[in-house]
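So, can you check this record?

>
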Amino acid sequence: MGYSFSAIQRGHQYSPNHIENDTLILYKTIEELEKMGHKIRVFQEDNLAEDKSGNKLYFNMIRGYDALDTLRRYANNGALIINSVDAIFNCYRINLAVLLPKHNVPAPTTYVVETDPRKFKAKEADSLGEKVWVKRGDVHAIHREDVTLVYSRAERDNILREYHRRGIEKAVVQEHIDGDVVKFYSVRGSEFFHWYYLEKNGQYQFNAEQLKKIAADAADAVNVDIFGGDAIIDKNGGIHIIDLNDWPSYAPIRNEACVHIAKLIDEKARKFIEEN
């Protein structure tokens, strides 16, 4: 028995340099669900309010506040949302900074700060030293400055003022850890897990099974089902989660990932229908 779903495509402003890849993973997933007998209508994040179908089943790649507020109304009216609205908000960096340490997920020391110079309290950020990462606190990078490695407090403060001018109220200042960047992709509750060094010549070895477990723990901490992320591998093989992304593009392994994503959506939908 097939069901009717609404699928919401990510707004292009939230897919810098990844519009095609984000579109492909969504439509690959739709193809898999259609093979199972499901029917899917596709909406754009910016036009979500046009969905008058009354569907109770949604899967989405949304990132922006307005569309997420609309989805929350649907959820409050009894709809199933995958990834959930709370999970997507939890992947905002200002929330990761709190949730990962709370659940003992290894991550660099990260402080949430106000970008307004009149409200900015420098004491905690100063404790991280001069070389730190400054990142916008909500959605993932849209502009080049949204994730910036700075080498002085003056440069840090300039970036924060730029965020403030752009209407970004909160940011994170994150400890810099020397090491290799590893990207990973997974689907919660499945054995699917893929990782690779961002730079081909990754020099630090680590336990891949440990990374898989830490990534799963991070997903549990924020309650996200379809996810990927980034980790730093330090010189001792230590693993530090620096970002967790709700529904990434899965570009290097799209054809395999879409099968697992579709399976998760199908299973959650069937359970939801049975219970309601």
